[in-house]
Amino acid sequence: MNKAFIKKYGTLLLLAAGAGIIFQLPYIRETFYVPIQNAMNLSNEQMGLLSSGYAAMATLSYFVGGIIADKFSARKLLTFSFIVTGILGLWFSTFPGYTVSRIIFILMGISTIITYWSACIKATRMLGTDEEQGRLFGLQEGLRGVLNALLVFGMTAAFTHYSKVADEVAGASAAIKVCSIVVIIIGILNFIFIEDTKKEEHTESLVDVTKGMFKALLIPRVWMLVAIIFTAYSVYGLIGYVNTYAVKFYGLSTAAAATLGGVRYLIQGLGGIVGGFLADKVKSRFKVIIGGCIGLALSFGLFIILPTTASLLVAIVANFFLGLFFIYAVRSQYFAVHDDAGIPLNMSGRVSGIASCLGYTPDLFMYTLVGSWMDNYGRTGYNMTWVYAMAAAILCAVITFILSRIVKKEQAAKAS
Description:
Number of helices: 18
Shape: globular
Structural class: mainly alpha
Number of strands: 0
Mean pLDDT: 84
């Protein structure tokens, strides 16, 4: 194994660890939704508002992250990001009340986004050639899944132990503490191992950066990339409710639901890696997204059809796993298609920042919306959520197909 190989994939592993584990805390509801809800006595709508507060701040943070990253040392920014997020997690583990918890989640919107996200995407693109993009993004998604799974299994062990010794509130608190401590440790490792960088000597002024942002917004295909992420991310967010659905209507225990949260990330590893290598094999990231979205629409349709009876729990969980495989295959490619869409590398940071900022806006309203459906309509509210997910998956497939045809026509015109 030569040094270049070790450096390339060592960097990819570090990027995957950072991009995965740091988001466990703001998205903790995906694994411990019911225990946290019970510990704080929150409605589904209030749980959604916690996520919306995080998303509102994260949306602004995507825009300013690139500017901040140019002005300060990457090593110090990454260290700050992880350690502050870990401290906020330790604070949240005390369940300080709804209002304070909203403030904590808003602060996480700063600490998990500004110093990391766009730089992570650009750094991944720079690790390989055009032909390797699907593979690299797939491997990053897969490694994130494996690392997240290991963490969630550790959190689940803490939850199970302290739930038996005390109660589920103590168990949820212990799980959040485990995650927070790991995040802080990663911050320390970043400070030790990440090579320090001096700030750019010829960075653009704020005016030039703003002009560049607006210039990118004038490119029609940038909006198509935004739409692909918006719809796919909507599906990704909604599939997290299947865990809660299985607990409330099919008799799944909260401990088993937490374990499924860990298994989810193992499937992320499988779906991400398979999606990445398949995209390079068929020489089309677009086909992977379209195929994955069709599979997702069918999977969510099955949730609507299956009747509410405990004997179908295995079928619900199996369908959940199938949907997870499809969504992680799709997620592994929705930034990789920036290369297919002809976005130059020198615009990658800006375009990924715009695509993330606007593409992740479902966080601003979606969880509050579907939470109110679940509070007001019960089982029917969940079916409304699955219909929403089906519509988003189908729309994502259609938009991706249209963009693929535009790119294909351009390539044919250049060839002639």
